[in-house]
Amino acid sequence: MNINFFFFSQCEFRVCVFIFNFFAANLSSITTGLCLGWTSAAESKMKDLTQSPLSSIPSTEEFSWISSLTPLGALVGPYIAGPLTSRIGRKWTLLASSVFFIASFIILIFTNTVAFVFVARILQGLGVGFVMTAQTMYVGEIASDECRGALGSFMQLGIVIGILYVYCVGPYVSFQSYQCYCLIIPIAFVATFFFMPDSPHYYIQKGQEENAVKSLKFLRGKSTEGVQQELDEIRATVEESMKNKATFRDVFANAANKKAFIISAGLLTFQQLSGINVVLFYCQSIFETAGSSLKPAIATIIVGAVMVFSSGLTPVIVDRLGRKVILLFSAAGMTLSLALLGLFFLLDHNKSPIAESIKWLPIVSLIAFVFVYCVGFGPLPWAVLGEMFAPNIKPVASSMATSVCWIFGFIVTKWFSSLQDVIGSYGAFWLFGVFCAVAFVFTLTLVMETKGLSLQEIQDRLNGRK
């Protein structure tokens, strides 16, 4: 009895260690969320000289760069992070992201010019690019086949927790204190994740089989014999994929890689064309423009809380319903929400008395939008990216797909204000709604279901083998 009790306690301890490892990795996602939501509160502070550390109020053009430089940095980051994941590992590439985050918040604490804000936002973007590239690979490779979708979708949950964090803190503290609160998270990430193992796939790739065994034992809470079958499968997958060293050209060299890239890059493109970064970066401003019946800061916190709640649903349902069904639901819901939001801005633009009676509609529409986005098109494109490619092609393909994502993220964020000037707020949100409708068709016709499939089985399906 004492032996059984000891064995149970040891297993329970190992499960707790795996959970700790996983959530330590997701602190990098929370830091990403800080950077994505940072502008919402910071913009209002920089517009008020009594709160701003800057000597003058930034112009509209400068604000557009402050918002868009993070996506621009995130565009460049994957091309540095992708090769690093093969050279130094997924773990150390993730840890390297914290260098950019920590440096950026320290710069913002002491900044007094817009130029230094620009530098800090670029550094944040580089960190985001590192996280988006390395974490999808790391989580996709440490997770078992049964829960890979659920664990992959936790990255989005971490991001929205970070967004909610800055939505709650930002409006109520000084500009410098805001940066200090943000700085806590990447420091905590380094302090916890430093002691975690790298992916067993990476160790096999580097010929470090002993480390691969230790990593699997740590992650699964099993003995050497208990992880042997999975180790053999990983070895076979890695050895097959490593026969040819991958280059950028290899992403399009065969039908399987080409199809995987089209699916992954397509989902990430539509993720950005939904206008999500506009909502995240300008959330408080949108409510101020709409003349919402709630205080903009409170309405923004409500939106952030809904994002956390809905992101928490995805890990529960994704391996039951599958990726494709949830993505279709998400695209349809975003289309409808953006149509209603555009309708309100049209009525408000035309000074319709109806707009005065439906001041609640922007809040309801944005809550509905972020709910369906965070259930589907927020987390699942990244989960799909982490499982679509063979290990040898994954660093290159992930870098390319992530960069495609942030190219569109930069375009949408940088020129949203100009788009509003040309077609109005209502036209801009309706355009995002059209992109979401196209995303529905794309998902329905091209995206394959990966629920319950091993990484090798996914490669077999992409290659047309049953």
In short:
The protein contains 19 helices and no strands.
Terminal CA distance: 47 Å
The overall average pLDDT, rounded, is: 83
- Major sheet size, sense and barrel closure: none
Share of β-strand residues: under 5%
Low-pLDDT stretches: 1-11
Number of strands: 0
Work out the helix count.
19
The percent of residues in helical segments reads over 70%
The general outline is globular
Radius of gyration, taken over Cα atoms and rounded to an integer in Å: 22 Å
Order of helices and strands: HHHHHHHHHHHHHHHHHHH
Protein name: Facilitated trehalose transporter Tret1
Main location: membrane
InterPro entries: MFS_dom, MFS_ERD6/Tret1-like, MFS_sugar_transport-like, MFS_trans_sf, MFS_Trehalose_Transporter, Sugar/inositol_transpt, Sugar_transporter_CS
Membrane topology: Multi-pass membrane protein
Topology summary:
Blueprint: H1 2-46, H2 60-87, H3 90-110, H4 114-142, H5 148-169, H6 175-193, H7 200-205, H8 209-220, H9 224-241, H10 255-273, H11 276-290, H12 296-321, H13 323-349, H14 353-357, H15 361-377, H16 380-388, H17 394-414, H18 416-446, H19 455-462
Helix pairs in contact: 1-2, 1-3, 1-4, 1-5, 1-6, 1-11, 2-3, 2-4, 2-17, 3-4, 3-6, 4-5, 4-16, 4-17, 5-12, 5-16, 8-9, 10-16, 10-17, 10-18, 11-12, 11-15, 12-15, 13-15, 13-18
Subcellular location: Cell membrane
Organism: Chironomus riparius
InterPro entries: MFS_dom (IPR020846), MFS_ERD6/Tret1-like (IPR044775), MFS_sugar_transport-like (IPR005828), MFS_trans_sf (IPR036259), MFS_Trehalose_Transporter (IPR050549), Sugar/inositol_transpt (IPR003663), Sugar_transporter_CS (IPR005829)
